[in-house]
Design goal:
Length: 544
Amino acid sequence: MTSLILHFFIAAVSCSVLATATINAGGTWSLLRSTIGITAMHMQLLPNDRVLIYDRTDFGESNISLADGKCRRDPNDNVLKKDCTAHSVEYDVASNTIRPLMVLTDVWCSSGALMPDATVVQTGGFNDGDHVVRVFNSCDTCDWEELKSGLIKRRWYATNHILPGGRQIIIGGRRQFNYEFFPKISSSEKAYSLPFLVQTNDPKLENNLYPFVFLNPDGKLFIFANNRAILFDYSRNKVVKTFPMIPGGEPRNYPSTGSGVLLPLRIVQGTVSVVEVLVCGGAPKGAFVNAQNGKFNDALNTCGRIRISDPNPQWVMETMPLARVMGDMLLLPNGDVLIINGGSSGTAGWEYGRNPVLNPVLYKPDCQPDVRFEIQDPSTIPRMYHSTAILIRDGRVLVGGSNPHIYYNFTNVLYPTELSLEAFSPPYLDPQLSDLRPTIIFPDPQTRFGYRDLTTIRFTVSGTLFPHLVSVTMVAPSFNTHSFSMNQRLLILDSGNGIRAVGNSMYEAVVTAPPSGNIAPAGYYLLFVVHRQIPSEGIWVQIG
Ligand SMILES: *[C@@H]1O[C@H](CO)[C@@H](O)[C@H](O)[C@H]1NC(C)=O
Ligand SMILES: *[C@@H]1O[C@H](CO)[C@@H](O)[C@H](O)[C@H]1NC(C)=O
């Protein structure tokens, strides 16, 4: 009972006017670059504040040349056997510059993750790239490398997740009703079948590609595909729980692309007792076939929220202020969910989306249902199929891409290929809030914590501090493509005895690092101090 009261008290406080001090409630947009040379179809933030971006190789010539007059010769390429343009770039947030990179085989509609050693391991793609595993190291001169050992199955539209042991699991993909791991433990390790992907696959409509996968704090995987979800023990190839169908039964995965997040995990005395998943938007059953016939269905305007830690979990439905297909859902450092990009009719797929939704929407999970959603100010640039969004260290959200055509078509098409990169600054970045914004003084960036380490976080706040409205959060840098962010998770650390003043405008919180790899797989995270829902700039830390 006591913990229940405490929970409601925290929820009520974090949504009160006092807690959420905002001035310009609509956020702001800025155009960072009118062109990055390619269309940002896949994005991953690296721990050196660069962003790895790529589209596909068989698109024709991009708007950026490879370095030093290099060219890629690929006899298998469907469009250009010799291509002297880049289809991947590295974007440097601090200098707002780009560097062309060379991918060797086709990476279209693939997946990946940032590994604990700061390399990106990317898997699959199309054509000659569909079995390939590629590595990108985070360094100033690094470029893509293709590994000799590839995938057992072709992976196109698969979802990857980092596992507690440091490997990746790669789930599904087109006509692949199975999963495999990378790296392999032994040469005899195979792909394992996953009948759930057959059960959720409508052979004509698919609707279960890029499944939404989250690591549950019990070490099992929550897998949502089409309109259903399971809890899956990948180590025993066993479904341990089947969740009810999302009410209404409409599909939420590609090409009826909605999105999903694991809501913030609050660690209290070494455990996470409440685990919730939120799935929003998508397109109704048949929308893809209808779009092929020139009929563009209204996108779904509902979200389903489910407390997967309950003994008998049930979906609770909510209505978004704006219907959306191909929307991205991003966890912001303060625990809010940003819903951004996409359209209000049609589906994912070439030329099948209509009516861009230019306004992002904030979802505040702890607020009462009637005040959870807040419409944000609009961008001017449609971000349709193949658009992306990621959180960066300073709390802004990078938005790029949109390419609903096979080529880089800029004219004679409904939504031109978008080479631009924008930043959306959520309302918490309003300069008028600067006296409430924490600045982290200690620990130093790149500090490594062990599981359960007690760690002192020192920060300043120049205005009045409300100690009970301070929290310390950690956000994993996710791999974003096709409106889904793989490996996305936000942890609210246990700050035990609260906050103490240690000098003029200087404070300390002693927090406990996450307890295990099930709650926080080893690797890089962004750590933030949040005061009255306003996050500090993040610092990179390592766990494990
Ligand atoms: C990229 O586009 C700009 C403006 O649209 C153009 O001036 C430039 O020549 C293009 N560069 C390449 C390498 O295609
Ligand atoms: C798109 O670009 C390709 C390659 O340049 C061209 O063949 C095709 O006709 C273009 N499509 C449209 C609708 O302009």
